[in-house]
Amino acid sequence: MRRAAFLVASILVSALFLWLALRDVPLAEVGESIRQAQIGWVIVSIASVALAVWVRAIRWRGLLGYKIPLPRAFWILTITFLLNQLPLRAGEVARSLLATRSGVPLVTAATSIVVERLLDTLMVVVMLAFALSRLPTALPAATQTATLFGVAAILAFALLIFFARVPTVPHRILDWLETRLAFIRRLPLRAILVNLLEGLRPLTDARALLHAVVWTVVSWVVSLGTFYVLEIALGVPEGDRLLMMVMAVTLASFSIAIPVSVAAIGPFEGAVRLAGEAVAMAPVLATSLGFLFHGVTIIAYAILGTLGLLTLGVSLSDVMSASKAEAPPVQTRGQ
User: Fewer CB atoms inside 10 Å of the end CB: C or N, the chain?
Assistant: First the structure.
């Protein structure tokens, strides 16, 4: 019953956001714009999605201590992204379970995902702050605020790394707070702190941190390139491409984090249209980009995920049934 209610809610949320994305935009014009896209560049964008997954596999393998071969890490990630298109989003749980079949401890697999999410969130926040500071209609105060927000995100991440290296410091801070605020003792902050520090522990090694940061940057550059290629395919003027690319990719990444939707359909398109409005792009063109970008990623994940299931010799039903036995360690924010 709960699963049925969740599915109905997901459909309703997707329908609502689709309506918002398409408001005042003739659907026929959006379809015509997409039909006129240059097919060669669309094919390149699908290949770019595959490249982004491969780069993320390189990063994930490093966070696992190189315990599994790179091709296997890649195929596990393809299954992850495929399952994350479903309303229940069991992809990250499936990733942890599939990693254990390769001899990776479940805790190691789960904490690697936590680190990935922190790095991705940091990257998205910094890119969004940069894009907001470059908007042609942005007020000086908004530009300064966006810049400070990006700097604050970097400093906060550095502080988390410091806490992971010296865990006694955050524990003492929590002890101090608990002695002065009685209600804090009733919250599960201690367990949350322990889990967070455990997740950050791999990044206390300078080499592992450098590996993770470098490949995080590379993965997002590839994802930005995917959107840029689609802008070329739809004939977006060159002067509008770069800022729209950063705004659209970052806002779309936030939209994926909405847990109640069908493959993020609706929130994703709405996010890209919002980016278009921010950079003064024509609504039809921005909406077309949203549908095309999302369609390319879904098609790529479907193809790659199916190949991943065949390559690893597992069935979708087996992975789903195994995932239901575990609670998801994190939600996905990504491409």
Answer: N
